[in-house]
Amino acid sequence: ENMNHYLSISEKNIWILIQEKIQEKVTPQQFTTWFSGLNLIKLTTKEIHLRAPNSFCSEWIENNYMDAIMLSLKEASISNRKVKFVIDNSSSESELSAQNNYPFLNTNSSANINKNYNYNNFLVGPCNRLAHAAALAVSESPGTTYNPLFIHGSVGLGKTHLLHAILLRLQEKGHKALYLPCESFVNHYISTIKTDDWDNFRNKYRQIDVLLIDDVHFLANSQSTREEFFHTFNALYTRQKQIVLSSDCPPEEIPTIEERLISRFRWGLITRIDPPGFETSVAIIQKKISLLKMDISYDVACYLADNVVSNIREIEGTLTNIHKYATMNKSKIDLSLVKQIIKGFSKQKHNIGIEKILNIVTKYYGVQLSQLHSKRKLRSITLPRQIAMHLARKFTNLSLEEIGGYMGGRDHTTVMHADYKIKKLKTLDRNISSTLRKLENELTKKNEY
């Protein structure tokens, strides 16, 4: 029934690793929608064969997510493979019923919702206390307390969890609420251009009590969609209907967005979720362990918090993969097993010391090591400093705190911010991506000898 049955243990572990890498690059909804139904069938030296539930799914992935897949394969040390999709012919789904399984195409809000993303499962710490309190206030009195509520923070810190929790609480109270990723709003707008059914489009978003839009920074990609969203926002706001938005950056940092939208986002409350500290990470790990019914000691939880995770989604993905590995191999989850699994997930990190990274970065940019250690915030120093932290995160086995120590005693949140910023910059700036390729080639080339 499951073709994974015919894979070797090593191939199964590789597929777990690839899935983990993909999860780091897409939202939970995107992963559940497009990737959870994929299975690895065959892996050769030239090709990787993936089984998709239907042609609609495979075509969508090929058109929208191949960059994420290819980068994930590279990070899993499986480069230079051609990806081939095989359609699962055992499924009798029609294209129409297949579309009903994909929340980006479904007009029913509940199709997007993860019932586990409720307030009971949201662990509150210093990093997210204000955002959690604001979400609760909105859940109790929508349209009156904070409107709009704008939550921002790096990927995987719990923004989507809070939006789902607000929706679930409001639905319990009988409010007419709609949640959707911004990507869905954009796609619905584009499809309405073809159908010309604007009455249906506008009624969907305006005849509700609460509108929750996830990843609103997607609006940067389409001026005409921003125009329509502006009118939707005004229509809801003037009728005192609640609007809740999430983004990976504050309003003023969303590329190409107009001042009139930024000013409207500021009418309510703008709150940030920060990366979890060590204690919060341990608590989140323990909460996730109990949900997965895993048997993991406090020492192992502390090791994971200190060495692996940089955000909550990564915590969940790592624990899920450890759980799969242990179940598949009938292994007891102790510290040595976890170290072995994490080591296997980080092949590209071996044998590259941070001293080598610092040496290559300072030479390339013509700066002194003492300047990287300093508190100065000139771009000519800040950029190489952040690139060094990003490379250390990618190529060493050092914890966030240890990397911060090498960078002039900076804390782990600074290292996380630098890593995230450089990852984002390399997708927007060709010069940065070119520089990173040169530096990484230099690092890996030197590592071969």
**Strands in their spatial order, largest beta sheet:** 5-6-7-4-8
The count of DSSP E runs of length 2 or more, i.e. the number of strands, is: 8
Percent helix, as a range, is 55-70%
Uncertain stretches = 1-6, 91-110, 346-350
For the residues shown, what is the average pLDDT? 80
* Global structural class: alpha/beta
What is the general shape? globular
Strand content: 5-15%
Q: What's the number of helices? A: 21
Largest sheet: 5 strands, parallel
Distance between the termini: 46 Å
Return the string of H and E elements: HHEEHHEHHEHEHHEHEHEHHHHHHHHHH
- Using the CA coordinates, give the radius of gyration: 23 Å
Question: Would you mind describing this structure in some detail?
Answer:
The structure is a single chain. This protein has 21 helices and eight strands. The model is unreliable at 1-6, 91-110 and 346-350 (pLDDT under 50). The longest helix is centred in the C-terminal third of the chain and has 18 residues, at 312-329. The protein has helices at residues 9-23, 28-35, 55-64, 66-75, 95-100, 129-140, 159-172, 182-195, 198-206, 223-238, 259-265, 278-292, 298-307, 312-329, 335-344, 354-365, 369-373, 379-395, 400-406, 412-428, 430-447; strands at residues 39-43, 47-52, 82-87, 149-152, 177-181, 210-214, 242-247, 269-272. The strands form two sheets. It has a five-stranded parallel β-sheet with strand order 5-6-7-4-8, sandwiched between helices. A three-stranded mixed β-sheet has the order 1-2-3. It is an alpha/beta fold and 449 residues long. Helix 20 (412-428) packs across helix 21 (430-447). It is 56% helix and 9% strand. The radius of gyration is 23 Å and the shape is globular.
